[in-house]
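#lab-general

N.A. 3:47 PM
ok so I finally got the sequence cleaned up, no stray characters, all 109 residues accounted for. can someone with queue access submit it? mine expired

B.Y. 3:52 PM
send it over

N.A. 3:53 PM
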Amino acid sequence: MTSSTIRYKRTTIKLPYNPRTGLCRVCPDKKLRKTNYHHWRHEFETKEVRKNPMLALKNTAELHYGHHLLANSLRDFVDMPFEILQALVETMDPLTKQNFLERCKQLAS
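B.Y. 4:20 PM
back already:
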């Protein structure tokens, strides 16, 4: 198996093998030529990951580009201070705000 690289905190990390499946975890029915690893959380310092490259795969999901962008937005949403989130929601037009709040309720159930 060939080696692969992954980005971790703006650093390229070389992995000992290629762990990519070419399948998006959101829509796995379609084999893709290119996928991205989305880090939900960077648990380790870069120097730790350089010593043990497989740590770079922890808390990741293999996604196609469009889903990776959405995952980045969700991570930003989760990490955002509540007061900022609340202020942003208040800037939404009424229909967008209603749809957003309904989605949040669906996720919570």
